[in-house]
Design a protein that fits this description.
Blueprint lengths: L2 H14 L4 H28 L11 H8 L7 H14 L14 H15 L5
């Protein structure tokens, strides 16, 4: 088990110290819901913002271009994605084609939270 996981487990144990069984059950429910929200947010993010994952499929030369700050995608694709991101209200990709902010993740998380918690502010 790595250090991060050990620390997470320690925090979980400490959060439950001195709590009643029903309080622990409520904490466990909230933890499960948060995990579901995070998993759904990842799926939503991948579906709505696939351009942020394009670098996973880079060739060696594409990766080299990105490391030099050059977006290896075609000019048409770059323009199409820039317009899509503008409509979605998120920051444009950087010159290398990589995300420069977390606003797309925030949108995905809010959508996942609204779906799973039943909120209707979206």
């Amino acid at each position: 088990m790595n250090r991060f996981k050990k620390e997470e487990l320690r925090k979980e144990r400490e959060a439950r110290v001195g709590k009643t069984a029903s309080e622990i059950e409520a904490i466990d429910r909230e933890d499960r819901l948060k995990a579901e929200i995070e998993a759904l947010a990842r799926k939503i993010h991948i579906d709505r913002f696939p351009e942020e994952y394009a670098h996973y499929h880079d060739s060696i030369s594409d990766a080299a271009d990105r490391s030099r700050g050059i977006n290896p995608m075609s000019a048409d694709y770059i323009a199409k994605i820039a317009e899509k991101r503008r409509r979605d209200g998120v920051a444009p990709l950087g010159g290398d084609g990589m995300s420069v902010s977390t606003d797309s993740w925030e949108i995905a998380y809010r959508e996942a939270e609204a779906r799973l918690r039943g909120d209707s502010d979206d």
